[in-house]
Design brief:
The complex is a heterotrimer of chains A (about 250), B (about 475) and C (about 300). With about 250 residues, chain A is α/β, with parallel strands linked by helices. Chain A contains ten helices and ten strands. In chain A, strand 7, helix 7 and strand 8 form a beta-alpha-beta unit. By secondary structure, chain B is of the alpha/beta class. Chain B has two domains: about 250 residues, Rossmann fold; about 180 residues, 3-Layer(aba) Sandwich (Rossmann fold), CATH 3.40.50. In chain B, helix 11 links the parallel strand 10 and strand 11. In chain B, helix 2 packs parallel to helix 13. Chain C has a two-stranded antiparallel sheet with strand order 1-2. The chains are: A alpha/beta (about 250), B alpha/beta (about 475), C mainly alpha (about 300). Chains in contact: A-C, B-C. The interface between B and C is large, with 56 and 63 residues. Bound molecules: adenosine-5'-diphosphate (ADP) and magnesium ion. The site of magnesium ion has 4 residues of chain A, from helix 1.
């Protein structure tokens, strides 16, 4: 299996604060991989850098061998990287179906929607995230869990090869978490490479076969969850901040 | 969102003010003429090249550059200067002088008038260009402000565009300050009002004789500006409940002052109001775009009234193309047309058309007469002293003196140019300052109407035509 | 009396129809991109002069309708260039956008002013599609204006359909509601903004084509009045709200015509009505009648 994402010496400084510090890793096609670290570790910033929302201070990002460092977000999406936000973002006044439709109209989304028809494609995604019965209502009145699903649906509509999920479980009830877990697993089974963050280690432990740990912007460990969870520095990082690991 | 909207509005206002201020500064300091102006033969049309600044008698023209009124004032002066220079200039004590003309943009035709621009224009003429005489003016509100610059500097200024009475009243009431002010065009508002009433009085009489008393109501529609005030007061009086002629009392059934920024939809509303008021004659008192709108709606709606009044834009020959012929049947007042008001009127008309390619506006004939009037006084007195020499000479151009010895006074093109010595205002009334009533007729022709001897003696003028009523009006009045 | 009421209603509708077209595009651009495009009134003015200049060119004799096509294309392109050359490089700063579009409006005005036809008022009545009028309750209803009102309603409806149903319309709304999130959907927000400004210029151009042949070209500065009134319309209706712009346009239209017809000496100050509306709305309901920046 080839490398899908290659991050090298990535650094992001916000004034005096180095949010991401000389960070490097690789992801292979088809992997299901987690990024962990306590709050403020720099996970969201890493995602922002990959998806083009922030420009790195230094370092390189390659996707499928193409240098995407500093590219505009919409171009990166059209190359095949989709992401969701930790804080849910949606088009408040478009219907759920139209929310998905918009993403199905993206360059890669169109490749599918051309064959199946935009409406069919959008409906099928909405069905797969379990929101088809709410197709006509706008997201402004949805509960939090449904919004998460919608967000993932919108990301899926762009027909990504690599999906970045930023804290998809935070603030959700246990049932809601289960629903999302199933959804993510299904996507992975369909061949999408998944890169997922979480600040509570336990959430990811059973889900992913590999995690990367970071702390204060720095790379700490990389490996199977059990191994990483027992890493001394990881333990210190979490304990130091008073967070439960498992 | 609320904050954002407010912030944006603040920004718009700040930007507006900023840019406005910038423009103001540009007008004041950076526009052509900032700093000392050096006069040369390029300012003296028709003069030999290489003449020096002190051989030039310097005339400054104020007006709105790019608007027909201001351009008219410039074009008339330019032509007068060119004729004098081509004839060899003028001699004062054996030194030859040439006439120099220069202009500054007073922006006074702008519907959103900023009087400080007029003042700035006058100041550039007086302080940077050091003019010795001023000619121009159009919008009373603007001229009222910037005439002071000329008065302060004791420079003779002849107004050739603003009709408001007050200007020349100033000369009478405060002679020591305002004695430098003159008006060569048009006749003042009160006189205009009187002439239009005299004409309408006869016209209505004639029409009522022909159409068995169909003319019962009159409406006025006018720009809500200073220059129309005296005229409107006059018309309100003549056609109002206390008018001098009982038969014409209470004829005024519609009275519409409008803001000059009006749109065609607004004008449509007004035309309908005039129709609803059953007007048989509508008197426009308009200097700007309202005239075109009025005539456009007139052509479309074919209302049962005749348009007789002041429509400055309609004075130019180009109005026909501008309106696509919609101005047909409009009767409007103009100071000059192809007729022998004086022996020099038609030669001037032709020379002007040859020079500029269009008909002269009243500001053009007025500025032409104004420049010639001053040059006449300079020639006669061999002096450039504004007061007392020139002023006192000019004050001899009275009605009585001109009637007694016309050959001693300069010829003028807009009527015999006589001035009241106490007000420096143009004398009104045939054969001095009088207005011509002209009607647009088929094929872009503009025909001088008979005034039934109410304003001019019809038989004394050439090219008097006949009134043509719109067919729908004849239908209405005969059925 | 009935004639007066007809007069007020018809002219209010007419004025409203014109402002609906102009303000809708103005509001759209603000709603989608937060762009305060002060050259919007100049597009309206310039379209009129483009038509005039072409009509004055011998080439177009017998091809009068082609001038409309050309004028609309040119104004749309100018709208596009406004965005690409002026707005896009500066769009992070509201002030800069306001200043630069104000500058453009001023420039276009000066360009028209120095053109051979810039100093006079003009009719472009050759482009009137309908002549004459019909009396209704003793009031003459001018056919050309009926055409304008009908076309304006049709365009507003088509536009609403376009925004709500078409794919581009959905993308436009997406960008309006969350520009970053729209980027995540692979939408090139800059491209969408470009289209939006072009569409708004086209709408201004259409308004000019529908209205000016029955009205007149009042001089190069005429755009400012339309800009100010559109501004009043969108403030009233809510910045960025399309329904608001249409409703606001008719409210402003009827208020002006009411002032013109029923208020003694109203015509002297009817033009102040929009400014009064701006001030009152900002004081009592700054978000406008229909609120919300995002396109719903
Ligand atoms: N735009 C920004 N400007 C300044 N500091 C930022 C910005 N974004 C993130 N940070 C800081 O960078 C650090 C990493 O943040 P983040 O990536 O959100 O962490 P995580 O997602 O792991 O909780 C934090 O200290 C945060 O305050
Ligand atoms: Mg985070």
């Amino acid at each position: 299996m080839g490398v899908i994402l290659e991050v090298k010496n990535l650094t992001k400084k916000f004034g005096g604060l180095t949010a991401v510090n000389d960070f490097s890793f690789e992801i292979k096609r088809g992997e299901f991989i987690g990024l962990i670290g306590p709050n403020g570790a720099g996970k969201t910033t890493v995602f922002n850098l990959i998806s083009g929302f922030e420009k790195p201070s230094s370092g390189r990002i390659r996707f499928n061998g193409i240098d995407i460092t500093g590219m505009k977000p919409y171009k990166i999406v059209n190359l095949g990287i989709a992401r969701t936000f930790q804080l849910v973002r949606s088009f408040k006044y478009l219907s759920l179906l139209d929310n998905i439709t918009v993403s199905c109209l993206s360059k890669r989304g169109k490749e599918v929607s051309k064959k199946t028809g935009t409406d069919n494609y959008a409906s099928s995604i909405l069905a797969s995230v379990g929101l088809i019965d709410k197709a006509r209502i706008p997201p402004i009145i949805l509960p939090h869990g449904d919004l998460r699903k919608l967000q993932i649906g919108k990301a899926v509509g762009t027909n990504p090869e690599l999906l970045l999920l930023d804290e998809p479980f935070s603030g959700l009830s246990f049932e809601e978490q289960l629903g999302i877990t199933d959804l993510i697993k299904k996507l992975h089974a369909d061949g999408v490479t998944i890169f997922i963050t979480g600040h509570v280690l336990r959430e990811l432990m059973t889900l992913v076969p590999r995690v990367i740990a970071m702390h204060q912007g720095k790379f700490i460990a990389d490996g199977p969850p059990v191994q990483v969870a027992n890493n001394k520095i990881v333990l210190e990082a979490y304990l130091g901040r008073g967070v439960k690991i498992a | 969102m609320e904050k954002l909207a407010k912030r944006i509005i603040a920004i718009v206002i700040i930007a507006g003010l900023g840019v406005g201020g910038g423009l103001g500064a540009w007008f004041l300091f950076l526009a052509p003429g900032a700093g000392e102006y050096s006069w040369s033969s390029k300012d003296c049309p028709g003069a030999p090249s290489g003449i020096s600044s002190d051989q030039i008698i310097k005339f400054g023209i104020t007006g709105d550059v790019g608007e027909i009124t201001g351009d008219g004032a410039w074009e008339g002066c330019y032509l007068a200067a060119k004729e004098i220079n081509e004839a060899g200039g003028i001699k004062i004590n054996d030194t030859t002088y040439y006439i120099g003309v220069t202009r500054e943009d007073s922006d006074e035709a702008n519907p959103n008038l900023v009087t400080s621009r007029g003042i700035a224009a006058a100041e550039r003429l007086v302080y940077n260009k050091k003019v010795q005489f001023g000619i121009g003016g159009f919008r009373s509100e603007a001229l009222l402000a910037y005439q002071e610059v000329f008065m302060d500097n004791e420079i003779i200024f002849i107004n050739t565009g603003a009709a408001t009475d007050v200007f020349c009243e100033n000369v009478r009431s405060w002679y020591t300050r305002y004695k430098y002010f003159w008006r060569s065009m048009p006749i003042n508002s009160s006189s205009l009002g009187e002439q239009i009433f005299n004409y309408l009085f006869r016209l209505i009489y004639v029409l009522n004789a022909t159409y068995s008393g169909e003319i019962a109501n009159v409406g006025i529609i006018y720009e809500d500006l200073t220059w129309t005030e005296d005229l409107v007061t006059g018309i309100e009086y003549y056609f109002g409940p206390y008018g001098p002629l009982p038969a014409y009392r209470n004829m005024l059934t519609a009275n519409i002052p409008y803001d000059v920024t009006l749109t065609a939809a607004d004008m449509l509303t007004h035309v309908n109001t005039l129709m609803a008021a059953d007007c048989d004659i509508v008197i426009p008192i308009i200097s700007a775009q309202g005239g075109l709108m009025l005539m456009q709606h007139y052509a479309t709606l074919q209302p049962n009234f005749l348009v007789v009044g002041i429509d400055v834009q309609s004075q130019l020959d180009t109005f026909w193309t501008q309106t696509n012929g919609d101005c047909i049947y409009e009767i409007q007042m103009q100071s000059i047309h192809v007729t022998n008001k004086t022996p020099t009127t038609i030669p001037f008309w032709n020379a002007f058309r040859a020079e500029w390619g269009h008909d002269p506006l009243y500001t053009a004939s007025g500025s032409y007469d104004a420049l010639n009037f001053i040059v006449w006084a300079i020639n006669e007195t061999q002096s450039l002293q504004a007061y007392p020499t020139l002023t006192q000479k000019m004050e001899t151009a009275t009605k009585a003196n001109i009637l007694a010895n016309p050959e001693l006074f300069p010829s003028s093109v807009g009527g015999l140019g006589a001035y009241w010595p106490t007000t420096h205002d143009l004398v009104a009334g045939y054969p001095f300052g009088f207005t011509l009533f002209c009607q647009w007729q088929a094929n872009a022709t503009k025909v001088i109407m008979p005034s039934y001897n109410s304003v001019y003696i019809d038989s004394q003028l050439s090219n008097i035509g006949t009134l043509i009523l719109p067919p729908w009006l004849i239908t209405d009045w005969t059925t | 009396m009935i004639v007066d009421i007809m007069n007020m209603l018809f002219n209010g509708t007419l004025t409203g129809a014109v402002y609906a077209l102009i303000a809708m595009g103005y509001s759209l651009v603000y709603g989608v991109g937060g762009i305060m495009n002060l050259s919007h009134g100049a597009y309206f003015m310039l379209t009129g002069y483009l038509l005039l200049w072409m009509l004055q060119t011998p080439f177009f004799i017998g091809l009068e309708w082609l001038t409309v096509v050309f004028a609309l294309i040119i104004i749309t392109v100018i709208g596009g260039l406004t965005f690409l050359l002026l707005v896009k490089p500066l769009q992070d700063s509201h002030v800069a956008v306001v200043i630069v579009t104000f500058g453009l409006a001023f420039l276009l005005e000066q360009v028209v002013l120095i053109s051979p036809s810039g100093t006079e008022v003009w009719s472009i009545g050759q482009l009137r599609l309908f002549q004459g009028y019909t009396m209704v309750f003793g009031y003459p209803i001018v056919h050309q204006y009926v055409f304008l009102i009908v076309m304006s309603i049709v365009i507003v409806l088509l536009f609403a359909l376009f925004i709500n149903k078409s794919k581009l319309g959905k993308s436009i709304r997406a960008v309006s509601q969350d520009r970053e999130a729209a980027g995540l959907m692979g939408i090139n927000a800059s491209r969408i903004l470009l289209y939006t400004v072009m569409i708004s210029a086209l709408l201004a151009g259409l308004a000019a084509f529908l209205y000016l042949p029955g009205a007149s070209l009042d001089g190069p500065s005429m755009g400012w009045g339309y800009l100010l009134n559109s501004f009043a319309v969108v403030i009233l209706g809510g910045m960025g709200s399309l329904i608001g712009s249409v409703a606001g346009a008719f409210i402003v239209g009827y208020t002006i015509s009411f002032t013109n017809v029923f208020v003694p000496y109203g015509p002297s100050w009817a033009h102040l009505v929009p400014i009064i509306i701006i001030i009152v709305i900002l004081l009592i309901r700054p978000q406008g009648l229909f609120g919300k920046k995002e396109l719903r």
